[in-house]
Automatic annotation (TrEMBL):
Lineage: Bacteria, Bacillati, Bacillota, Clostridia, Lachnospirales
Cofactor(s) this protein requires: NAD(+)
Sample GO molecular function, one term: oxidoreductase activity, acting on the CH-OH group of donors, NAD or NADP as acceptor
Annotated active site: 172, 266
UniProt-recorded name of the protein: 6-phospho-alpha-glucosidase
Binding-site positions, Mn(2+): 171, 201
Cofactor note: Binds 1 NAD(+) per subunit.
PANTHER family: 6-PHOSPHO-BETA-GLUCOSIDASE-RELATED (PTHR32092), MALTOSE-6'-PHOSPHATE GLUCOSIDASE (PTHR32092:SF14)
InterPro entries referenced in this protein's UniProt entry, alphabetically: Glyco_hydro_4, Glyco_hydro_4_C, Lactate_DH/Glyco_Ohase_4_C, NAD(P)-bd_dom_sf
Keywords: Cobalt, Glycosidase, Hydrolase, Iron, Manganese, Metal-binding, NAD, Nickel
Positions with a binding annotation for substrate: 94, 149, 286
Sequence ranges assigned to domain Glycosyl hydrolase family 4 C-terminal in this UniProt record: 196-417
């Protein structure tokens, strides 16, 4: 493991970047970087975050060369790994994704419901652009590890538009839930072996083992009473806001109604949508929480550091988010065949779902990519839920590729968070106007 790597973070201006960099440098003895490049089309924002990233490098591995750039050739030339975490439209567009649906008493959430469909339509073409840069400039064995949301839609679109791209789509939400599970079961997260099936942000844990010991029923009993809230205050900063605490707590209601499997927390938006809307503030959504919280804190910290040279970086070292993407990259780099939950084409893994569904299941991560495990058949309720959501995502991808208003409307209508075709049309038409600078034209 003496090889060194050139790594690019796309969306270098993200407030998560310092935490990801810290997770990378924590592994310098096994996964050594020679060069770290931050790439973003918003130079001013990236420069501010770059101040903190420079500090992280000074703290943990000053040998690493840091490059901040808005130039694709400079960013991607000979790159081995590309971590993609784009937020197209930034938090202004996320705020609209959340607030437009809420006007119609529909779930307002960044990756689920109409907000997720809107976000997907903004992200598809920029991700194609990143892949094309990699094909043109990067190492021939490059890997893109993609965190950009909504990951299910991005993954499905890339499989259609760039089927030969070396891209692995991942999500940290199951891992964040497993972190809480490990606190509940008093074990290390890395000792948890999950069985899981679904789509991204739309799935269920079927079995939880700690090493060889099956602890599923014990965990189910706990979640029915307490959700995924740990028995003490152990929790990652990123998921410590009131809205996240409510999300983890709400898992108990899902578990009580559908006791077969442990739910991904995002299932609350599809199964408890009316309750979510009832308890939402239509004028102050999660986007506002983030802008007034993490966003403000990190840019204030950058200014403080530039002014005084003093800074406490600890609040920005988001553990599981950065750890997971680095774990996956290391398994790709060194053919470790580690078992992780990632997104792959179904191809029979879930026997009674379409082969072209982009499922999230356990896979072994090799140097050639993910090797899927076999899930077998799933029960009718879960199959029906997934097929409806998968059809919705397939239609929104086709709408983006074909510029089809009709397919976009069909996708919005199929989404379980939206109660009728009339409401779907109202939301879609308002979102078209809000996204005119980002979406492909829909005719």
């Amino acid at each position: 493991m003496n090889k060194t790597f050139k790594l690019v973070i796309v969306g270098g201006g993200s407030t998560y970047t310092p935490g990801i960099v810290k997770s990378l440098l924590d592994q310098k003895d096994q996964f050594k970087l020679s060069e770290l490049r931050l790439y973003d089309n918003f130079k001013e924002r990236q420069d501010k975050v770059g101040v903190l990233v420079k500090k992280v490098i000074e703290m943990f591995d000053p040998e690493v060369k840091l490059v901040l750039t808005t130039d694709p050739e400079e960013a991607f030339t000979d790159a081995d790994f590309i971590f993609a975490q784009m937020r197209v439209g930034l938090y202004h567009m996320r705020e609209l994704d959340e607030k437009i649906p809420l006007k119609y008493d529909v779930v307002g959430q960044e990756t689920c419901g109409p907000g997720g469909l809107a976000y997907g339509l903004r992200t598809i073409n920029p991700m194609v652009e990143i892949i094309d840069y990699c094909e043109k400039y990067a190492s021939k064995d490059y890997w893109i590890v993609n965190y950009s949301n909504p990951a299910a839609i991005v993954a499905k679109a890339m499989h259609k538009l760039r089927p030969n791209a070396r891209i692995l789509n991942i999500c940290d939400m199951p891992v964040a839930i497993m972190r809480n599970m490990s606190n509940i079961l008093d074990c290390d997260r890395k000792d948890i072996v999950p069985d899981y099936f679904g789509l991204n942000h739309f799935g269920w844990f079927t079995k939880i083992r700690v090493g060889e010991e099956d602890r599923t029923e014990e965990l189910k009993d706990y979640v029915r009473e307490h959700g995924y809230m740990p028995p003490d205050d152990r929790s990652e900063v990123r998921h410590n806001d009131a809205s996240w605490k409510h999300t983890f707590d709400n898992a108990k209601n899902l578990m009580r109604m559908f006791p077969d499997y442990l739910p991904n927390t995002y299932m609350q938006y599809y199964l408890l949508g009316d309750e979510i809307v009832k308890h939402s503030d239509k004028n102050y959504t999660r986007a506002n929480e983030v802008m007034d919280g993490r966003e403000k804190r990190i840019f204030q910290a950058a200014e403080q550091y530039e002014t005084t040279g003093e800074i406490d970086m600890t609040p920005f070292f988001t553990g599981v988010h950065g750890e997971f993407i680095v774990e996956v990259a290391m398994s790709l780099a060194f053919n470790l065949k580690k078992r992780h939950l990632v997104m792959v084409m179904n191809n029979g893994a879930v026997k009674n779902l379409p082969d072209d569904a982009m499922v999230e299941i356990p896979c072994y991560i090799t140097k050639e990519g993910p090797e899927a495990t076999r899930v077998g058949e799933i029960p009718t309720f879960f199959k029906g839920m997934i097929e409806q959501q998968e059809a919705c995502e397939k239609l929104i991808v086709e709408a983006a590729i074909e510029g089809s208003y009709d397919k976009a409307l069909a996708a919005f209508t199929l989404n379980k968070t939206i109660p009728s075709a009339m409401v779907a049309k109202q939301i879609l038409d308002e979102m078209i106007e809000a996204n005119k600078d980002y979406w492909p034209e829909l005719k």
